[in-house]
């Protein structure tokens, strides 16, 4: 049993211990945000806005889960916010603070592109790490496929071309950057259906987490992104998630089964298209998915092919070709 004197010592020491713990946590949070630490970055990210926590609280109505919550992503909770007259998307860290947060944010600020969802600013304050991105009002392609009734073949080609240019930009960086988590949910749309790839360059912030790829590795470096882009193209034209296709045989079996039952094309796709464009689209889709991985095209070739298909649709826009009225031939060399 504790004596009276012992209890009094504990009673008097407890507040001091609590204060000491709070002070320690405060300094740890400052160190993890790159302040007062010799091992943290001393470089302030360029071309970005450094927001205060109070600004982001006001922008999100104190991170209102009912009205401002967009979803839950790999980095944490995602909110909409209003800063001035601009709507933004704010991602808030939910697992643990990253000691190299400012380094990674600085890096992300240098890889911006018109076909990437660009970082606007950040906050590293009060033990919080948040990222502020431009807001894409139409959401992601996966959701848009299910909700839209005006997503024509031509518009889908345009979206695919935008996304391909985003990946090409990453692959052309020095050193090259691979997305490694690309899928339809990572392609976001603005009010005019311009597409941008999200979460580009974020692997450094996620390196301590379980990044299970949504496609078989099947290759190294950018071949993984090319394979994922092939799945994206297939889902974009069919409206259906194809799952993992781990051989050329499985790919052809999946396509030909739907072709034979006239269910390959998305029922929600209105309008017309040329058979030539559809054949070219399926050809580049299969090439992106092909095995072995070394035979997959580079993203610059994918961009070129999609540009040709898009221009062909522009030229033939006035021609009427009934949707799904003809079967098309696919040949694998």
The proportion of residues forming helix, as a percent range, comes to 40-55%
Per CATH, the architecture of the largest domain is Orthogonal Bundle
Percent strand equals 5-15%
Q: Mean of residue pLDDT?
A: 81
- Count of folded domains: 2
- Sequence of strands across the biggest β-sheet: 1-5-6-4-3-2
Oligomer: single chain
Describe the structure.
It is a single chain. By secondary structure, the chain is α+β, with helices and mostly antiparallel strands. It folds into 2 domains: 49-134, Phosphorylase Kinase, domain 1 (2-Layer Sandwich), CATH 3.30.200.20; 139-315, Orthogonal Bundle (Transferase(Phosphotransferase), domain 1). Helices cover 41% and strands 13% of the residues. The chain contains 10 helices and 9 strands. The strands form 2 sheets. It has a 6-stranded mixed beta sheet, with helices on both faces. A 3-stranded antiparallel beta sheet has the order 7-8-9. Helix 7 (222-238) packs antiparallel against helix 9 (275-289).
